[in-house]
Automatic annotation (TrEMBL):
This protein's UniProt keywords: Amino-acid biosynthesis, Cytoplasm, Diaminopimelate biosynthesis, Lysine biosynthesis, NAD, NADP, Oxidoreductase
Subcellular location: Cytoplasm
A Gene Ontology BP annotation from the UniProt entry: lysine biosynthetic process via diaminopimelate
Active site: 137, 141
EC number assigned by the record: 1.17.1.8
Family annotation (PANTHER family): 4-HYDROXY-TETRAHYDRODIPICOLINATE REDUCTASE 1, CHLOROPLASTIC-RELATED, DIHYDRODIPICOLINATE REDUCTASE
One GO CC term, this protein: cytosol
Protein name in UniProt: 4-hydroxy-tetrahydrodipicolinate reductase
Gene that specifies this protein: dapB
Dihydrodipicolinate reductase C-terminal domain: residues covered: 107-238
Binding site residues for (S)-2,3,4,5-tetrahydrodipicolinate: 138, 147-148
Domain Dihydrodipicolinate reductase N-terminal: 1-104
Listed SUPFAM superfamilies: Glyceraldehyde-3-phosphate dehydrogenase-like, C-terminal domain, NAD(P)-binding Rossmann-fold domains
InterPro entries: DapB_C, DapB_N, DHDPR_bac, NAD(P)-bd_dom_sf
Amino acid sequence: MKILLIGYGKMGQTIAGLAAGRGHEVVGIVDHQASTQRIEDFTPAQVDVAIEFTHPEAAFANVAACLRQGLPVVCGSTGWLHHFEEAAQLATDTHGALFYASNYSVGVNLFFHFNEYIAAKMNQFAAGYDVQVTEIHHTQKVDQPSGTALTAAEGILANFPAKTSWRNAPAQAPYELAVLSEREGTVVGTHEVRYISAADTIELRHEAHSRQGFAEGALLAAEWLPGRHGVFGMKELLGL
Ligand SMILES: NC(=O)C1=CN([C@@H]2O[C@H](COP(=O)(O)OP(=O)(O)OC[C@H]3O[C@@H](n4cnc5c(N)ncnc54)[C@H](O)[C@@H]3O)[C@@H](O)[C@H]2O)C=CC1
Ligand SMILES: O=C(O)C1=N[C@H](C(=O)O)C[C@H](O)C1
């Protein structure tokens, strides 16, 4: 596949490092610090798929530019979902293809699946438990809470009706789900869902050991997307 990389930071470079080994060619790099190339310089004849990992402030414009150029786009940037409906509408209007995941790791997507299952079971059986989400990331991360923590929170809110909203701080009422953020050194990404009662604690935890799992998942999505039209995520890709 011919890949256009948008964003050549920690994730862009990890993806580039894995792409050649899977038989892909990086035909362009768009990064305002690392390159002078622009998305508008590329056509569907030159690019099979664009992969976007940049910044919360940049992601929507990059996704929109890809869709207007007719380039299928796999987006991993977090912190821009207030624009997601607009992006989805543009994908429909341009008959384009947009793939978004707050986390491309297959392990994290299993964690999301188990999180929804546990929340539904806790709702069915377990009175007396409170629940909270914690995410820990490196100190360079600009958005808070992480996209992954937000997806986990949505999975709880949809299946555990005692919680009706989330707060990026300790809960101030029983119906609030605390989503706590910690920033420490070079931590790649750790997410925990913890149910606590007077009797015991139940934890679901994912700890990324490197960025390889994110990059492999983004490449899986990039291999899957070309030829499809619409808006997709890891549930469609993995059949979860
Ligand atoms: N969905 C997932 O699985 C994952 C998502 N992420 C998200 O991906 C994003 C990027 O993460 P990292 O690579 O760690 O960040 P980074 O800061 O290491 O790299 C970002 C790169 O984007 C470039 N950039 C910034 N604005 C740009 C623009 N307007 N156009 C083109 N390039 C631009 C920067 O120059 C930088 O090289 C973040 O939002 C992060 O939360 C990170 C890891 C996994
Ligand atoms: O910024 C990061 O590094 C990460 N961001 C994603 C998120 O916000 O959930 C995914 C991963 O945890 C790493």
